[in-house]
Amino acid sequence: MKITFHLALDDNQRSMIIHSLNNLRNRLIEQGKYTDTVDHILVKVISAKKKKFKIVYTEN
After folding, report:
1. Which residues contact residue 17 at a Cβ distance below 8 angstroms, ignoring those fewer than 6 apart?
2. What would the pLDDT profile of 3-55 be if each residue is shown by its tens digit?
3. Gap between the Cα atoms of 16 and 52, Å rounded
4. How far apart are CA 18 and CA 13, in angstroms?
5. Which of 20, 26, 31, 37 is least enclosed by beta carbons within 10 angstroms?
């Protein structure tokens, strides 16, 4: 069974994730290590579809 997660991010959060993954990728390249996993995640984050949704707050 494949487990799927969905994240709700604003533009700033998405930008920070992309920037952080790119920095990690650059450090791995400097160390001569493989970047396959980071590349895969980076492509997923960059190509993820944006979906608008409404949040309704209710009092308990």
Report:
1. 9, 45
2. 988 888 888 999 999 999 999 999 999 999 999 999 999 999 999 888 888 88
3. 20
4. 9
5. 31
